[in-house]
Input
Amino acid sequence: MEGLTTTKSPFIEKAQQSGERFIHQPYELYSEENHQAWANLYSRMQSKWQKYANPKFLEGVSKLNLDPNRVPKIDEINTFLSPLTGFAAKPVSGYIPAFTFFDCLRNRDFPTTITVRDISKLDYLPEPDMFHDVAGHVPMHTDKAFADTLVRFGEFALSAALVIQEIKDKEVQIQRAKSVIKALARFFWFTVEFGLIRSGKELRAYGSGLLSSYGELTHCIESPEVQRYPIQLEWTVNQYFEIDHYQPLLFIVDSFDHLFSLVNELEVWLKDGRLNNVSPGEPFVSEDDIQSFLTAKL
Output
């Protein structure tokens, strides 16, 4: 059995080589080791989620009826998810360009990897895997306010593509695209991926990078080494980040309605030119990301 292990899957390699971004989930290819890796990842997160996850995430886990012992079937997840918020998990072969990703969100599709991390490397991998995407992200998609915010991110990307494509000077167009994409990626990182939220008098995690990490979920709430600040838009769009260690700086939103309002504000900043020259540094913006905005069909 070849399995569907992250970075070791012939099925995924073949899809990538043939240029297939959106794929199906060949469930029969999962090995027993894949299922065991999922079970190990899921079981050790239970007590962490109860202690540190925001209540909407816990509700989402319950509503999705995820199997703790077997890799979930995406079609079954969507059976529970779609009636709640209209969202659906959409299997992908790996990386998709920035505009394509956000346009999926606008259409209430969430690009979802189908591979499972190697059972010997449960704690960290640089690529997203199915546990990060399904157990980390998708439970939040059962909440209407959060789901609507993801759609709003997609609408922002569409507005950004319109602004960028109207620029006539090619060099200026590319520079603006790089800056706006960098701002959007940073804002998404510090919210949807690594965000904290107030829950009464306590802090809880809602970012998927935190909710899918056994070590960092405790660290983000408990460690005195982490700087935690009420979110400010000008900070998030100008703050670089690195992906290969626990995050030293996290931002707090008051609610998902608050987060939605921040995406609205980000669009105002876009149209006012306040995202034209954000600070340099990570994340790297690839040529594919830039071209996805320059060539988007609007």
User: Anything to note?
Assistant: The longest strand covers residues 88-92.
